[in-house]
Amino acid sequence: MKNTVLTLKDIVKSYADGPSRRMVLNHVDLDVAAEEFVAIVGPSGCGKSTLLNIAGMMLSADAGEIFLCGQKVSDLPQKRWTAIRREKIGFIFQNHQLLPYLKAGEQLSVLMQTDDATVRELFRELNIEHVIDQFPAKLSGGERQRVAIARAFASDGDLILADEPTASLDSERGRHAVEMIRMEAHKRGKGAVMVPHDARVLDLVDRIYKMEDGQLSEVG
Ligand SMILES: Nc1ncnc2c1ncn2[C@@H]1O[C@H](COP(=O)(O)OP(=O)(O)OP(=O)(O)O)[C@@H](O)[C@H]1O
Ligand SMILES: [Mg+2]
């Protein structure tokens, strides 16, 4: 049995909806093992990003427990979340948040303390070597997205969370990026959870979960 890198237990999340509350996650459970690449699919608004944000300690749940690499993190005070997130998780956001005042390469070397050779190697693998000394404002959407992917790979953490990581890439580059996430999980022993932008990459994942009525069920 491989180590479990992420466990969500009985997660509940609702949002205020006028005078009532709308239940988005209704007792969700999920286990992701090292070397496992998991996809979560479901219609727009069903709660996929909410789930990823809770797993990535960007958002608190109303109830339930979160374990990262066996450590229960859901009980820790929120002021410690940033440090845990930095240590354990590489997060690829849909809107690829890069810091505007750092050059592309520095998003890794400064933020993640990645050495120059590794930065160069990651940029080469993602075909963005030419933007290494550019600021984000000078990059195309797809280049920015690949810098964000490289930054998530530079994380030493055991978990990769990717929310539509290929939304601004054409299908060929998008598939290549998802292949790299798969390799990162399989070769470097990380667990990865992705909300895919494009169903054509689902053949690359190990397990698919469908989100429906606030609950996850395995497909196939
Ligand atoms: N901060 C918030 N306050 C209130 N409602 C919210 C908030 N964030 C999300 N929601 C609602 O929760 C539901 C789930 O949103 P979420 O972003 O998780 O969906 P999703 O499955 O990621 O959708 P998409 O595929 O469009 O990205 C939606 O109905 C959304 O309107
Ligand atoms: Mg979403």
From TrEMBL:
UniProt-listed InterPro entries: AAA+_ATPase (IPR003593), ABC_transporter-like_ATP-bd (IPR003439), ABC_transporter-like_CS (IPR017871), ABC_transpr_LolD-like (IPR015854), MacB-like_ATP-bd (IPR017911), P-loop_NTPase (IPR027417)
Question: Where is the chain membrane-spanning?
Answer: none
PROSITE patterns per record:
ABC_TRANSPORTER_1 (PS00211), ABC_TRANSPORTER_2 (PS50893)
Q: Spell out the SUPFAM superfamilies in the cross-references.
A: P-loop containing nucleoside triphosphate hydrolases (SSF52540)
Topology relative to the membrane: Peripheral membrane protein
Main localisation, per the record?
A: membrane
Which part of the chain is the ABC transporter domain? Answer: 6-220
Gene3D superfamilies, alphabetized: P-loop containing nucleotide triphosphate hydrolases
Is tRNA-binding set as a keyword in this record? Answer: no
Keyword list (alphabetical) reads:
ATP-binding, Cell membrane, Membrane, Nucleotide-binding, Transport
Could you tell me which Pfam families the record lists for this protein? ABC_tran
Q: Name one GO cellular component term.
A: plasma membrane
- Record GO terms (molecular function): ATP binding; ATP hydrolysis activity; transmembrane transporter activity
User: Is Repeat given among the entry's keywords?
Assistant: no
Where does it localize?
Cell membrane
Subunit structure, interactors included: The complex is composed of two ATP-binding proteins (HrtA), two transmembrane proteins (HrtB) and a solute-binding protein.
Which protein family is it in?
A: Belongs to the ABC transporter superfamily. HrtA family.
The free-text function statement in the UniProt record for this protein reads: Part of the ABC transporter complex hrt involved in hemin import. Responsible for energy coupling to the transport system.
Under what name is this protein listed? Answer: Putative hemin import ATP-binding protein HrtA
Which species? Pseudoramibacter porci
